[in-house]
Amino acid sequence: MSLTQAQLAKYMDHTLLKANATAEQIDSTVADAIKYGTASVCINPYWIPRVSKALAGTGIATCTVIGFPLGANTTDVKVFETNDAIDKGADEIDMVINIGELKGGNDDVVLADIKAVADATHAKGKLLKVIIETALLTDDEKVRASRLTVEGGADFVKTSTGFSTAGATVHDVKLMRETVEPDFGVKAAGGIHSLADAYAMIEAGATRLGVSASVVILEEAARQ
């Protein structure tokens, strides 16, 4: 496949989630997102006011993470985090499911967790992506998690936090795409470092990419 640099940028959540990210690095990430016109900037909740203010009027969304990176916060805490994040300027919420409960077969608990955050997000007119952490799941669990994401009322199912044992794979993205409706969002995140990686994920069915190497990939796209 072949996309222009601008077309490819619209797939990207330009991401900086490292614990040691400084204000200067956050500002640099925002500047890169504005330069290339990415879909969003994805940062930890602390940085939402700074990023939202810097992105005002650009059309680039402020994205943040909830229950991150383990997913084992209580639902009440996830809902509080979500409301707080949106009130401070977040446009998109990427939440982590309760992975242990999914693996334990307690789908009702996982569904209720997703639905509570989806309801809070949509009540404020924002968008929810649900991280299922594919590296820790069997294929059957990935399918169940994807179905629960749809049933819970989210907008996207997302592969990975980028902080577990592995990131997105073409196999997992294809499996997730086959499980959800054709118009449901699929976000591939973690381990996408090259233009070939980005294209492979899009061809597998991803409609959004979580990428920290956005500049490298987009510069590579410009040379094609």
Description of the structure:
- With 224 residues, the chain is an alpha/beta fold.
- The protein has helices at 5-9, 23-36, 48-55, 75-87, 99-103, 107-123, 139-151, 170-179, 195-204, 214-222; strands at 12-16, 40-43, 61-66, 92-96, 127-131, 156-158, 185-189, 208-211.
- The longest helix has 17 residues, at 107-123.
- The radius of gyration is 16 Å and the shape is globular.
- The model has no long low-confidence stretch (mean pLDDT 98).
In short:
Helix content is 46%, strand content 17%. It is of the alpha/beta class and 224 residues long.
Descriptive terms for the model:
eight-stranded parallel barrel; 46% helix; alpha/beta; 8 strands; 224 residues; lyase; TIM Barrel
Q: Note poorly predicted spans.
A: none
Give the tally of structural domains.
1
Fold-level CATH name: TIM Barrel
Spatially, the strands of the biggest sheet line up as 1-2-3-4-5-6-7-8
Label the overall shape.
globular
Helix tally equals 10
Largest sheet entry: 8 strands, parallel, barrel
Supply Rg: 16 Å
Helix content: 40-55%
GO molecular function, one term: deoxyribose-phosphate aldolase activity
Keywords: Cytoplasm, Lyase, Schiff base
Pathway: Carbohydrate degradation; 2-deoxy-D-ribose 1-phosphate degradation; D-glyceraldehyde 3-phosphate and acetaldehyde from 2-deoxy-alpha-D-ribose 1-phosphate: step 2/2
GO biological process, one term: carbohydrate catabolic process
Fold blueprint:
Blueprint: H1 5-9, E1 12-16, H2 23-36, E2 40-43, H3 48-55, E3 61-66, H4 75-87, E4 92-96, H5 99-103, H6 107-123, E5 127-131, H7 139-151, E6 156-158, H8 170-179, E7 185-189, H9 195-204, E8 208-211, H10 214-222
Parallel strand pairs: 1-2, 1-8, 2-3, 3-4, 4-5, 5-6, 6-7, 7-8
